[in-house]
Amino acid sequence: MNQKRAIVSVIGKDQVGIIAKVTTLLAEQNVNILDISQTILQDFFTMMMLVDVTNFDNLESLQQQLSELGKSLGLTINIQREEIFQAMHRV
Amino acid sequence: MNFAITEMMETIRMVQMENLDIRTVTMGINLRDCADSDFEKMNQKVFDKITTYAKDLKEVVEKTEKEFGIPIINKRISVTPIAEILGSATKEQAVELAKTLDRAAKTLGIDFLGGYSALVHKGISKGEQTLLDALPEALSVTERVCGSVSVGSTRAGINMDAVRQMGTIIKEAAEMTKDQNGMACAKLVVFCNPVEDNPFMAGAFHGTGEGEAVINVGVSGPGVVLSALKRYPDADLGEVADIIKKTAFKITRAGELIGRVVAERLNVPFGIMDLSLAPTNAMNDSVAEILEEIGLERVGTHGTIAALALMNDAVKKGGAMASSYVGGLSGAFIPVSEDNGMIRGIIDNALTLSKLEAMTCVCSVGLDMIALTGDVSPATISAIIADEAAIGMINKKTTAVRVIPVPGKKEGDIVEFGGLLGRAPVIGVNPFNSDKMIQRGGRIPAPLQSLIN
């Protein structure tokens, strides 16, 4: 079966423990992280993670939990299928 | 990782701040096999077929939207032009069928159902005349049914008898919904050279050349183009075209991906991508504002046509490379009531009906969502339609008229239509009449295809 991958994006004010909290949540949901990239862009903490979501029929519950975590930390967290970035940025 | 953080940020910014969305996923459904000499049977077959074919449309679209993080605003259905299956049904039965379509749309939870239509650009058959007679009432007693009528084409010329009827039909439809500002007219388009695979309302129908069922997708994204241009205030016009082209490419690729996923999940073939830039009343989601960003103080002033031509062509060039199957209307929509910049242009007297007509020569579609004074005569509406159809016929392009003669309203009043349809300032028409020309009737012959100047 083909691997189904998604991108988790985290954007917001930098603070201690962002990566720890996001990765903990993903680990609890049994989501494997394939790649992480992180930087500070114009004072904003920006992280993107490539994750394996092959075992998820839909991303709704993951998105909901990530949104809740984001809210408590004052960050915007999204999870989207990787293909959308592929389509828009690669020919 | 395959992508740079800046690329990821770009996509997220487009969606969250610049109103990038898929405007519509429209499922086309062929209803020809529902025709039956017994009206009750046909009525039931139509309802059953639509609600069976599209039963998962809403759910699949909503799931896909969440998974990919790109909003899909409308879920719609287009059907075979209803006039083609009416046969010898009566006017009352035709209205009844409109109600059935409305009920099907509501049952499925979809936004609009298009195809209460007749193609009469050369002549009017019995079923088509029944549909025309039923149109005002059918659009008044239903909420989600949209109708369209083709009155001309480059190959057939313009059927002026149909054009004459349309003036009266539009007036009647407005009168029947006068407590809603003539709302029925917002669901009725008169076309020249209509396309068979248009996913946008109110002009969508499932044409003769189409298969059993199909998924067509319309993207949007004036806001994305506008903010891309704002980042290059000093670019020359060649560069401006290039920026628009690249942005259109990205928008279209997103739309194509979503369209294909939805089609695959519904097990229906993917039809086409419609590349149109379609505005909404949301802040900065205006086509007119793109033209103003190119360098016009107000849309409608001198230079508007050139700016629009540049933009429309660039959108097509970018989109054509991004999608394997481009179709529909593909260009720029400039519906007045749905575009804050267009509304401002009219209020400030920069934009007039004549300029709007001229703009339709270089962009997709035509006089769209324009509120006219309530006392405009049917013949004048017919004449407006005839002018627009002539532009389409000669230029070999689709043109359309969707005007609302708002009962009791005067020039300068503002009319609220609500929701996606927005609000529009009422425009006055030329005080001189065109009655004689419209009375003459007949058919304007198809134009020469050579000696083109």
Textual characterization of the structure:
By secondary structure, chain A is an alpha+beta fold. Chain A has one domain: 2-Layer Sandwich (Alpha-Beta Plaits), CATH 3.30.70. Helices cover 35% and strands 38% of the residues of chain A. Chain A contains three helices and four strands; from the N terminus they run βαββαβα. Chain A has a four-stranded antiparallel sheet, with helices on both faces. In chain A, a hairpin with a 2-residue loop joins strand 2 and strand 3 (44-52). The longest helix of chain A is centred in the C-terminal third of the chain and has 14 residues, at 60-73. The mean pLDDT of chain A is 90. By secondary structure, chain B is of the alpha/beta class. Chain B has a single domain (1-453), classed as Alpha-Beta Barrel (Anaerobic Ribonucleotide-triphosphate Reductase Large Chain), CATH 3.20.70.20. Chain B contains 15 helices and 13 strands. In chain B, strands 1, 2, 3, 4, 5, 6, 7, 8, 9, 10 and 13 form an eleven-stranded mixed sheet that branches. A two-stranded antiparallel ribbon of chain B has the order 11-12. In chain B, a hairpin with a 3-residue loop joins strand 4 (145-153) and strand 5 (157-159). Chain B is globular. The mean pLDDT of chain B is 93. The interface between A and B is medium-sized, with 28 and 23 residues.
Low confidence ranges of chain A = none
How many helices of chain B? The count is 15
Instruction: State the CATH topology of chain A.
Output: Alpha-Beta Plaits
Query: Which protein chains make the most extensive interface, counting residues with beta carbons within 8 Å of the other chain's beta carbons?
Result: A-B, 28 and 23 residues
Rg calculated over all Cα atoms of chain A: 13 Å
Class by helix and strand content of chain B?
A: alpha/beta
How many independent structural domains of chain A?
1
Question: Which series of helices and strands of chain A comes N to C?
Answer: EHEEHEH
Q: Termini of chain B, distance in Å?
A: 55 Å
Strand content of chain A: 35-45%
